Input
Amino acid sequence: MADRLAELPGGPDELALLVRHLLIHREEAGRFGCALPESRYRSEAETRYIDDILDIVTQLDKAPLTAPRRPLDRFAGTCRDFALLHCALLRHTGTPARVRCGYATYFAPGFHDDHWVTEYVHPERGWVLSDPQFVPDTRIESAYELDFDPLDVPRDRFLLAGEGWRRCRTGEADPKTFGVSTLGLMGLWMVRGNVVRDLAALNKAEVLPWDAWGVGDGGRRGDEEPGEAELALLDEAAQATVEADFERVRSLFLETPGLRVPETITSYQSYDGECEVRLRGDRPGS
Output
C-alpha cells in the first residue's frame, strides 16, 4: 500500500477531502446525476480491507490517488469505508486515528442513524470527530445542509455506540429512535451490535457494519435477546469505549470470547443474505 500512498497531503482536513474524491456512498450517486451499475452497488460495499478498496479505486481510474476522479470512478461504499480510509491515511501520515461506530443525529430529525466516523488526535484539541463522507466536493456539488463543520463533528451530533447503549438502558433515550431510518430497522439490538463493533474498531479490527458475533449478534431482526450476563458484559464494554479506557478496552477484547472478533463471523449482507465469513489471518479493515 505504501507505494500508492506517496505524496499524500499531511493534514487531517486535506486527507478527508482526498477520501471524498476517492469514494462515493453507494446511495448518493443521484446527488451527482449518475447511477451506479447494479453489480457495483451490491458488491463494493462488501469490501473489507483497505488494500482491496484501493485496488478497486485504481482499477476504475489508474491515475495517482491525488488526481481528480469522476463520481463513477470512485469506490462505491458506505460510511464505514469513508471512516476507514480516512483513518488509514491519517495513520500512514503519522496522526493517531481510529474508526468509531455510533449514531448520527443529522440524517433524520429525532432519530439516531447508524453511522461511522473518524476520530483523530488534534494537536491542540485532543481527540476530534471527523466525518469525511459529508465533506463536499465543491467542484461538482453544493455543501451538505449541516449546521456544523463535518471536519469537527460536535459530540452531541454523533453519539458513540456505548453512549447510545447507556442512554437506552437507563431510559434516557428510546431504543426505537436508534437504527437505520431509511430501512425501518431500529431497536436496542441495533445498538447492541454497534457496541461490540466499536470495541473491535478500537482494537483495529474494523469490520463491516452488518457483521456480528458473540454478544453483539442479535440475529437479523433482533430476535435473539441477550441474557443478564450478556447485558452486564455489554454494559461494561459500553462504559469502557465511551471512557476510552484503553487498558480495559484491550483486555475486554482479548480476554472475552463474546467480544473478541473470531476467525469466522456472521455477516447479514444487504443483498446476499446471511452468510458465514472466514476472516483473513490479519485484522479486518486497515
The chain is about 35% helix and 20% strand. The CA atoms of residues 215 and 231 lie 8 Å apart.
